Amino acid sequence: MAALRLSRVQPRVLESVDLEVAGGEVVFLSGPSGSGKSLLLRAIADLDPQPGKVWLDGTERSSIPAPEWRSRVGLLPAEAHWWAEQVSDHFHFGIDAKGLTVQSGLLERLGFGPEVVGWSVSRLSTGERQRLALARLLVNRPEALLLDEATANLDPTNRERVEGVIADYRVEHAAAVLWVSHDPEQRRRIGGRSLVIRDRRLVPEA
Amino acid sequence: MSLIVLTPWDLALAAGLVLLLAFLSWRLRLGVERRVLIAATRSAVQLMLIGLVLEGLFARISLPFISLLALVMLLVAGWEVMARQKRRYSGWWGMGIGIISMFTSSFSVLILALTVIIGVKPWYQPQYSIPLLGMLLGNTMSGIAIALDSLTRSASEARGRIEARLLLGADWPAAIADIRRDALRSGLIPIVNAMAAAGIVSLPGMMTGQILAGSPPLEAAKYQLMIMFLISAGTGLGSVAAVWIGSRRLFDERQRLRLDRLRCRP
């Protein structure tokens, strides 16, 4: 059970945040744009310096080397960045190359054939990039997931696929999931706690 | 062949040509006449001053004085590297990166040249050490300035890409590897081009100077060759050092990309 616990985490625009997400639990996060949702996820992934403490599975962040921490907490940013020519070049980043073949079922579940790894990144649509960004994150086998609008650019079929993959991953790996989503329907469909940022504070959604 | 001494009248004639250029600029409304005149005056004052300083140094060979001059040259070069950056490292690092990398590259190459290659005695003989250091610093400075500028510009533009790699578990050297490579390449291109064109497109300044001063052209060519090799090595080492320190400074102890450590010049 990889629980995620935050104590006095304080991204720039927010008041200090205390939060616990149990292993296997999903917590939704919403709030107006600019309210600090993405900054909170960045703070947990240790991309921005801030004073608070974060524990994963009982281990405090500062006792884990930063690259290892980031691959264990798995942040999926709203905008996926691709830098090399081929899709496969991005999968070998920081992971064992065989991770990809082991998880080829994952690509299938996201609506891709195995040939997708040989595709050129430039021919991918926005939605395809978003789904592949999730695949590229999951082959790292993160113990927690920080999702920033993971389905924002997807049509209903693919949104369902992504939701299914995340739900199964969460159950199978008992992963704590913190999910920024603006879609109330989605929050209802998936269940779990919903928090909202109001007046710089993180409060339960009424 | 011996050196023909230039009289003030000779220099005045050459200066007259610059005045003509300024006049042309005024007549054609190019708007650079003021800058031409200021630059010409600056170079006249600076070169005469360094000439006087060197005369004094040559007359009385003293390691402390030579070191002092070398230090001043290094500090000015460090300032110049910083001044050429659009995005400067804040605080002491702005000048520090240039100074450290030029010190390690130019000075080590210089000492190697003086002690092993030329074998001059004493090794700090100013007639050799100061002009060599000047040429090394001048060229290393340009290489480092270009490399650092490329590094900070690309890192700022590629923030999303660098952070995407960090998020996939890459450490900082892997996250910025391609940007570092490009920065190094751009720092090295000018000297590589200069080497390739030397002798065909251009007669390098040092060789020209030696020939004018009466050296046999083949000897001048050999000196020029040596200095080009030294400059390439110095620029290469200096750029590697600057890009390494500079890229390290872009990340903190938790390997976060810290673009807030750069100040963007308007």
| Overall pLDDT of chain A | 89
Summarize the helix and strand pattern of chain B as letters.
HHHEHHHHHHHE
Chain-averaged pLDDT of chain B: 92
How is the biggest beta sheet of chain B arranged?
2 strands, antiparallel
Structure overview:
The complex is a heterodimer of chains A (206) and B (266). By secondary structure, chain A is of the alpha/beta class. Chain A has helices at residues 37-44, 66-73, 87-91, 98-102, 104-109, 126-138, 156-173, 184-190; strands at 4-9, 17-21, 26-30, 53-56, 59-60, 75-76, 144-148, 176-180, 193-198, 201-204. In chain A, the strands form 2 sheets. In chain A, strands 6-7-8-3-9-10 form a 6-stranded mixed β-sheet, with helices on both faces. Chain A has a 4-stranded antiparallel β-sheet with strand order 2-1-4-5, covered by helices on one side. In chain A, a hairpin with a 7-residue loop joins strand 1 and strand 2. In chain A, 39% of the residues are buried. Residues 94-98 of chain A have low confidence and may be disordered. Chain B has 10 helices and 2 strands, in the order αααβαααααααβ. Chain B has a two-stranded antiparallel ribbon. In chain B, helix 1 runs antiparallel to helix 2 (33-59), helix 4 runs antiparallel to helix 5 (126-157) and helix 5 packs across helix 8 (177-197). Chains A and B meet through helix 2 of A and helix 6 of B.
SSE layout:
The complex is a heterodimer of chains A (206) and B (266).
Chain A: E1 4-9, E2 17-21, E3 26-30, H1 37-44, E4 53-56, E5 59-60, H2 66-73, E6 75-76, H3 87-91, H4 98-102, H5 104-109, H6 126-138, E7 144-148, H7 156-173, E8 176-180, H8 184-190, E9 193-198, E10 201-204
Chain B: H1 8-27, H2 33-59, H3 63-83, E1 87-89, H4 93-118, H5 126-157, H6 159-167, H7 172-175, H8 177-197, H9 205-212, H10 217-249, E2 262-264
Antiparallel strand pairs in B: 1-2
Helix pairs in contact in B: 1-2, 3-4, 3-5, 4-5, 4-10, 5-8, 5-10, 8-10, 9-10
